[in-house]
Amino acid sequence: MNPLINRFYDMGFLIIPTGADKKPLIQWKDYQTRRATLPELTTWFSNGNNPAVICGAISDNLVIIDCDDPHVSNLLQIDTFTVRTPSGGIHLYTKSKVIPEKQQAYRGYALDIQADKSYALLPGSKTDKGEY
């Protein structure tokens, strides 16, 4: 299993499997309220499925700012863990005391806020558009 999956799991994040199309390979609603077990994770990721993290309060208040425009991401000046996306944008991983109830899109600014009831692919994921 990908060591990063173990690392995020150890940090308290909820992880689910996705396909190359970014869609969950399980009924992920169940995992918005409970963590997968290590045996489940081993089964899900033994064949190369992509890992994604469920965002929000359930994953220790994880919020991922998905910025499609690198120029806009430079304006944010957030010093945090970042992941380059296949489109040339970045995911900024942070924690927040205020968690939106659902994904909010700020299309005018090329930003999506991934929080409660949303998920984002983890590094090492390979999609139809490229690798995270």
Fold and architecture overview:
- This protein is of the alpha+beta class and 132 residues long.
- The protein has one domain.
- The strands form 3 sheets. Strands 4-5-3-7-6 form a 5-stranded antiparallel β-sheet.
- A hairpin with a 4-residue loop joins strand 6 and strand 7.
- 30% of the residues are buried.
Notable features of this structure?
17% helix; alpha+beta; 132 residues; 3-stranded antiparallel β-sheet; 5-stranded antiparallel β-sheet; 3 helices
Give the topology:
Elements: H1 3-10, E1 14-18, H2 38-45, E2 50-54, E3 62-67, H3 70-76, E4 81-84, E5 90-95, E6 104-106, E7 111-114, E8 119-121, E9 126-127, E10 130-131
Antiparallel strand pairs: 1-2, 2-8, 3-5, 3-7, 4-5, 6-7, 9-10
Averaged pLDDT: 85
Biggest pleated sheet: 5 strands, antiparallel
With strands numbered from the N-terminus, the spatial order across the biggest sheet is 4-5-3-7-6
Helix amount: 10-25%
> SSE string, helix = H, strand = E?
HEHEEHEEEEEEE
**Which parts are unreliable, with pLDDT below 50 for 5 consecutive residues or more?**
none
What is the total tally of β strands? 10
Rg over CA atoms, rounded to whole Å, is 14 Å
Number of helices: 3
What class, by secondary structure content?
alpha+beta
Question: What proportion of the residues form beta strands (DSSP E)?
Answer: 25-35%
What is the number of domains? 1
Calculate the terminal CA-CA distance, rounded to whole Å: 17 Å
What characteristic shape results from the CA principal axes?
globular
